């Protein structure tokens, strides 16, 4: 794979070794390193070694390459600490979706208890939708393929 970099991107700088990181896994295609915020202990970022801003910029080959590494890295994180009971896998795309670094990255966030320092909730909006609303959304998405 030929890698392209963005000289202004902090993750590209980490990939090239210009900025230090706590790398937990690296191969020709991806680099996984500890998120400096450590939402929970072991919070890891998995980044492609080629600069793509978000999921919309992936082609099928890059997606297969990057996402195929997730289980391997997730298993290593879980095996690293017997207190880990679960793991959130999170990918934010766009500022409105809380993406703060515009180099695609996947968060692997270990979970220790129901009350650790990470929270993620989804509001149930199902009462706002009827059969027609669901069908309209479904057909709008299906028409894009």
From TrEMBL:
Coiled coil ranges: none
Keywords annotated in UniProt: Methyltransferase, Transferase
GO biological process entries: methylation
EC identifiers of the protein: 2.1.1.-
Molecular-function annotations in GO: methyltransferase activity
Keyword Methyltransferase: yes
Keyword Transferase attached: yes
Locus of motif Histidine triad motif: 103-107
Top-level taxon of the source organism: Bacteria
Annotated ranges, domain HIT: 10-120
SUPFAM superfamilies assigned to the protein according to its UniProt record, in alphabetical order: HIT-like
Record's protein name: HIT family protein
